[in-house]
Amino acid sequence: MNWFRFFLHVLLQILKALAYGWIVASVKLLKRLCRILKAFCAYLKLSHWQQEITGDECCQFTNPAYHRPDPCIYDQYYLMSLNIAVTWDNPDISLLRNGVVVSETQLLPNTQYEIDATIWNNSFLAPVAGMQVNFGYLSFGASTVLHPIGSTLVNLGVKGGPGCPALAKMLWTTPATPGHYCIQVQFSCPDDSNPNNNLGQNNVQVVPAQSPANFTFTLRNQTKTANAYNFEVDTYAIPAAPPCPETIAQNQGTFAERLKKIQAIHNRANFPVPAGWTVQITPPEVALASGDETQIAVCVTPPTGFVGTVPFNFHAMYGKNYAGGVTVYVSKT
Which domain holds residue 162? Predict the structure, then answer.
C-alpha cells in the first residue's frame, strides 16, 4: 500500500509540473533574472571608485604584502572620538576669491568662490588614484542640512611623497539669500584603512565683542530618534607646530602611546573659558524629535578692558555623542 501511495504521489507531482508547475518556476526564474539585470544596470551607472567599493567584503586582501591607503582630512568627529580637542575652523579647508583667501563671514550672495581642500595620506606605501571628493555647504549651526555643491577627482600620493598632500578645488556660487554658510568636504576610497577620518567641516563666525557679544546658530536632530542635547564650550585653538628635529627616532612607540601624548597636548580641559568671561547658552538643554531644529542663542561677555581675539568652540552633544559644533571668534580692537 505504501508503494502504491508513493507511486501516486510521484505521478501527481509529474502531472502538476506538466500542467502548471513549469509556469510557476519560469515566473520565479524570470523575476530573479530581472533583479540581477536591474542590479547590474545600477552598478554600471556608478563611478569607478563607487564600483570598486561595491562588492563582497570577503574579497578584501589581508596579506601583509598588500598595502592599504589612508586618505584623510582634519576630521573633527574622528578627533573628538579620540578625546582630542578640536576647532571648527578647519585648517584643511579655505575659500578664495580672485586667488585671495576670504573668511566665511565675508561671503557675498550670488558670488563665485573657490573652495580648496587639502587631502592627506597616512600611508607611506599605498597611493590613491582618481579619488572622488564631494563638496557641500550647510547653514551655520550643528547637524544642519547638507546642500551638495559638486565633486572632483584627485590623485593622492604616499605620505612624504611629491603627490601628498593633494589639493581638491571646487567652484561655488553662493546662494542668493545672504547669510553664513559652512563648508563640508567628504571622500572615500576602496579598501581605506581608516574610513573614519574622511569628513572635514569648516564652521566659523566672527563676532565683535560689544559687551556682550551675541549670536545664534541652528541645532538640528539628524538622527532617527528623539534626543536631548546639551553643550560644551572651550577655547582651544590649534597650537603652532613644533620645529622638526634634525633626526627622527626609529621607534615612535605604539599607537596607544603616541595617542596618549597627543591627547595631553590637545586636552580640552587645558582650554577652559578664561577667567572674567561669561558664556550664556539659551536654552542650555533642548529636546528635539527626529528631523526637528531650533535656534540656540549665545551671549559671550568679555571682561572689562578686553582687547584681542579669543576663539570659543561650542559642541552640541546628545548623551556621549557629538552632533557637531561651531567656532566663534570674539574680537575687539
Answer: 71-239+251-332
In a domain, 269, yes or no: yes
Cell of 217: 546658530
Q: Which residues pair with 156 in a beta bridge?
A: 128
Whether 13 maps to a domain, the answer reads no
Residue 294 β-bridge partners: 219
CATH number at residue 212: 2.60.40.2310
Whole-prediction pTM value?
Answer: 0.75
Q: Give the cell for residue 51.
A: 564600483
193 belongs to a structural domain: yes
- Pairing relationship of beta strands 112-121 and 93-97 according to DSSP bridges: antiparallel
pLDDT tens string, the chain, 333 residues long: the values are 566 676 667 667 776 666 666 677 777 888 888 888 888 888 777 655 455 555 555 555 555 667 889 999 999 999 999 999 999 999 999 999 998 988 777 778 888 999 999 999 999 999 999 999 999 988 765 667 788 999 999 999 999 899 999 999 999 998 887 777 789 999 988 889 899 999 999 887 766 666 688 888 889 898 889 999 999 999 999 998 888 877 777 777 788 888 899 999 999 999 999 999 999 999 999 999 998 999 999 999 999 888 898 999 999 999 888 888 889 888 887
Residues facing 151 on adjacent strands: 134
Q: How many residues does the chain have?
A: 333
